[in-house]
Specification:
By secondary structure, this protein is an all-alpha fold. The protein folds into three domains: about 190 residues, Hypothetical protein af1432 (Orthogonal Bundle), CATH 1.10.3210.10; about 140 residues, no CATH class; about 60 residues, no CATH class. It has 19 helices and no strands. Helix 5 packs antiparallel against helix 6, helix 5 packs across helix 11 and helix 17 packs antiparallel against helix 18.
Length: about 400
């Protein structure tokens, strides 16, 4: 670890509010280890256990929620980071934190809040994650008594920044990583960083996220009886790939990708029947796919650079064939799970619920908010700032608590 530690200088270890070493700390923890502990112990991290990943956490004991997904992303990120020589604590912390900003009801809730927050700068799960880490999650205050969130190191905060640009500079997909009123912290953590470029630790976190949900969403769909890998409606899956991920995807190329996936030794030849042998075979398939993707990325990255793989010294390389295989798995999940008719109807009601909840909270003049958000409301100087406070409150809720708040305040 000593050699890895030397790749990260004092600036990378700096915090917004300086923290002297603790007099008593046994065993002694290094700065990036302390960052990881702060995320694990954060209230917003615990709440992920009751937030939707793809299927609502109350629907089945087996399916992933945001917390179990984050733990799996962290495991993949740490293993790949260790193989590359990147600091594993930084990448693992970024992976643990990457979904902290997601609101109730998963990406559906994110879309709903984005529309409701238009007047105050929009809503984006990744920008909300940064807001939690540098403002909303209480751990440290500055000399003026203002919260600086968890007060993580610069390197860790940078690794958590999946989209290092403002909404005004967002590409066509609309993704961005910071709200305008969090720019001071963003500019601090991005000091001396190349414009719009992600550090390699953030790249590892992002890939681990893609690998995890491409494989695990398919696994959840199989166990739920929605996906049968031996009977795929390829025309419908290809359409989902084009609508959701790759508009210009060619059928012949997609068939070639599927053929490569089917060549994986653990790809099933019979339908899943729920037995222990079938579940064991499915777990072997997920393990093989994750190993296949991460192994290909490791080899391509080493082939492209001699490193060191830290901060901005090198980039992660994802082969086109690997990315295509991940995309096809995403397309399978999109068609059979995300576009399920019952789920689409439920999502419409969820968006209505969030809109009604935001409306009643805005009309409550801060009285219905939790104490910390009520204090933010009291300091807000205009309607846009007050809308942001309400959006922060709603985004903090779990699926179940959003329903409970709606029942109490609206119904």
């Amino acid at each position: 670890m000593d050699q890895v530690e030397r790749l990260y200088d004092e600036r990378a270890r700096e915090r917004i509010v300086p923290e002297p070493p603790k007099r008593v700390e046994a065993p002694e923890r290094l700065p990036f280890e302390r960052d990881r502990a702060r995320v694990v112990h954060a209230a917003s991290f615990r709440r992920l256990a009751a937030k939707t990943q793809v299927v609502g956490p109350q629907s089945d004991d087996f399916v992933r929620n945001r917390l179990t997904h984050s733990l799996e992303v962290a495991q993949i990120a740490r293993d790949l980071s260790r193989a590359l020589g990147t600091h594993p604590d930084i990448t693992e912390t970024a992976a643990l934190a990457h979904d902290l900003g997601h609101p109730p009801f998963g990406h559906n809730g994110e879309r709903a809040l984005a529309a409701l927050a238009e007047e105050c700068g929009g809503f984006e799960g990744n920008a909300q994650t940064l807001r939690l880490l540098v403002r909303l999650e209480a751990k440290t205050v500055d000399a003026a008594g203002e919260s600086v969130g968890l007060n993580l190191t610069r390197a860790t905060l940078d690794a958590c920044t999946k989209y290092p640009w403002r909404r005004a500079d967002a590409p066509a997909d609309g993704k961005f990583g910071v709200y305008d009123d969090d720019l001071a912290a963003f500019e601090w953590l991005r000091r001396d960083a190349p414009e719009r470029r992600r550090c390699v630790e953030a790249q590892v976190m992002d890939l681990a996220d893609d690998v995890a949900y491409s494989v695990h969403d398919v696994e959840d769909g199989i166990v739920a009886g929605k996906i049968d890998l031996t009977r795929l409606d390829t025309a419908a899956v290809w359409q989902a790939v084009r609508e959701w991920y790759q508009p210009d995807a060619d059928d012949d190329a997609l068939y070639d990708v599927l053929a490569r996936l089917r060549s994986v030794g653990s790809w099933p030849s019979t339908s899943y029947d729920g037995s222990r042998p079938a579940l064991a075979a499915l777990k072997n398939l997920t393990s093989d796919l994750i190993g296949r993707f991460c192994g290909a990325v490791q080899q391509a990255t080493f082939a492209a650079s001699s490193g060191p793989f830290a901060r901005y010294a090198a980039d992660l390389v994802v082969p086109a064939d690997t990315w295509a295989e991940i995309t096809v798995l995403k397309g399978i999940a999109a068609h059979y799970v995300m576009q399920d008719a019952g789920r689409v109807a439920l999502q419409s009601r969820q968006r209505e619920l969030l809109a009604e909840l935001v409306d009643v909270l805005l009309r409550s003049d801060g009285a219905a908010l939790d104490d910390s958000f009520a204090a933010d409301w009291a300091r807000a100087t205009d309607d846009a700032a007050r809308t942001r406070v309400v959006v922060d409150q709603v985004a903090s809720l779990t699926d179940a608590s959003a329903v409970a708040w709606h029942t109490r305040l609206v119904s």
